[in-house]
Amino acid sequence: MGMQPFAGRAAVAGVGMTALTRESGRTELDLAVEACRTACADAGIAPTEVDAVLSYHMNDSAPVTQVARALRIDRLGWHNDIAGGGTQAASILGDAAMLIHAGLARNILIYRALNGRSGKRMNTVSTGPQERFTYGMAGPIPLFALAATRYLHDTGLGPEHLHAVVAQSRDNAKTNPRALRREPLSYEEYLARPYVCTPLRTADCCQETDGACALLVSGVLGGPRIQAVVRGGGPGCSSMDRAPDVSAVFSEYVAPMLWEASGMRPSDVDAALPYDAYSWLVPRQLADFGLVRREDLGPYLLERRHAWINPHGGLLSEGYVHGLNNVAQAVREVRGGREVALATGFGGSYGSAALLVG
Questions:
Q1: Contacts of 296 (CB under 8 A, 6+ apart)
Q2: Closest CA to 276 of 170, 127, 124
Q3: pTM across the whole model
Q4: Rounded Cα distance, 220 and 223, in Å
């Protein structure tokens, strides 16, 4: 693959977020506009200086043209509502970087806005009468719980390791005023949480959240630089009937692509923001991206050596803005002095990853 032609040519110059809640009482348009205005202000520009707008959604958000109109962007250039969920969280940075490299835009707004708790909820079957669902997977949690069962069996990990992931995310979130979950979680409390679908308890699943997050990507302003972005996948847990390994998530396929495209190594990463929609995805990605050896995962988690992962609490504790809030934290980490931040986007066996550099 080699180095990507857009490497280092675009920077994330602004970050904006609304409050994260379980009942916003606001429209997705209101949420998106607030986050976008905040991102522009953080970058030091007016919304009218934006010439491209990108978003991703699952028919649960405000279209980019409505957001642009509300921001009074009278002459809107390239714009796109990308169909998709968590797979887009990292790769949408690549879309923006390619637009800048092609000379099609200078300042690009990226946003994700949703009422993921009080509005359309992803972890429920809401596509028709229940009699239509007499068999199969009733939503994403049963699908990924099945993959998790196989993964835990193959690695020898168990509930104590999943608890370590969740409890550490709570500990990391306790100093984050945005986080929805900041209370400590003992092992006994974890075991008392009800199963959603074995082996995943309620604590193992990300927060359903109302809120919005926005990034201002620029070819003319400073900030953490977009070094590499990759997107891909294979026949893993999204297509179990054709998968040799039902637990193989996107990172198995994307990680080698990322290191080849960036010319970097796992040891270069000093801030990791993996997409942690479910607790078991953290150790899976740590091993796939080469940050921890698979055989070392058990003690690594129990000894809490993963405390540097998702220092804001991640999707498990801060909230769930479909992964874009983890990318926003990657920007904050590089601004704060980290040299290389890894952020990922998950959609089963398909997904994306990006590297930001200082």
A1: none
A2: 170
A3: 0.95
A4: 10
Q: Which pairs with CB-CB distance under 8 Å and at least 24 residues apart come from 238-243?
A: 238/143, 238/347, 238/348, 238/349, 238/350, 239/348, 239/349, 240/143, 240/146, 240/147, 243/349
Within 10 A of 286 (CB to CB), how many other CB atoms are there?
A: 24
Q: Among 69, 67, 41, 73, which residue's Cα sits nearest to residue 54?
A: 67
Q: Which residues fall within 8 angstroms of residue 132, CB to CB, at 6 or more apart?
A: none
What would the pLDDT profile of 93-132 be if each residue is shown by its tens digit?
Answer: 999 999 999 999 999 999 999 999 896 656 554 444 444 4
Tell me the sheet residues that pair with 197. Answer: 200
- Cβ neighbors of 188 (< 8 A, separation 6 or more) are none
Structure tokens at 55: 């978003």
Alpha helix ranges (H) inside the chain: 28-43, 64-70, 88-101, 140-155, 159-173, 187-192, 250-262, 281-288, 297-302, 314-317, 324-335
Two structure tokens written together for 207: 């927060």
Note the pLDDT of residue 137.
64
Query: Which single residue is written with the structure tokens 């490497």?
Result: 7
Segment holding 198, helix H or strand E: none
What's residue 242's pLDDT?
Answer: 83
